[in-house]
């Protein structure tokens, strides 16, 4: 069967970009009109959404992206990238190794939190109070998992990124930049969770929860909350992989060579 030129062109039809000899357009905007005029965060918005954000929308998105760039070698994605960088692969491969670690358990909580907050908002719109909606959705999520996405942190008693991010959202709500429903949903979950735990250690919102609020308030669907986190964390992955290439190690493993893994007791062996 012969494929026509038009069929081949339609196979790759896209609204994201249009490329011809001597011409590059992003969402129908010539690249020469964007270079030097539009920031990188605005380009992310443009390619994903088809238009340019307002300055306040851009600033809010940038704050979320800045907050998620790095969390040190304690993060599996960073550790994996640093190890990969010592194994004779290129910098791009080291970055890909780190990015590929960002799955449901490490990197997916933002997406899951947007889904959860959207469920809370939907129940509220159906007539539930914010508190009742939060408790019902929490019960549903905790029947499936012991972890509530976007809340609590294994390392920080209170995530230092939470307060500045939520303060920016709160101001954006006051100024009419975003509606605030996802912020109220997150605050309702946080309050309901604190009451449920009583005097136990509180489980405040973490970076995934705070950025989920921002992504949802800005209108990004849940899967893009993960995609945007991947873009953000890629910056830290790149920096760590690059630093590791200059330290002269070869085949770096997860433990110093002087430390050997413990022997697994027989009763724990498969």
From TrEMBL:
EC number(s) given by UniProt: 4.1.3.34
Top class in the EC scheme: lyase
Protein name: Citryl-CoA lyase
Record's keyword annotation contains Lyase: yes
Keyword field: Lyase
Top-level lineage group: Bacteria
Protein species of origin: Streptomyces citrinus
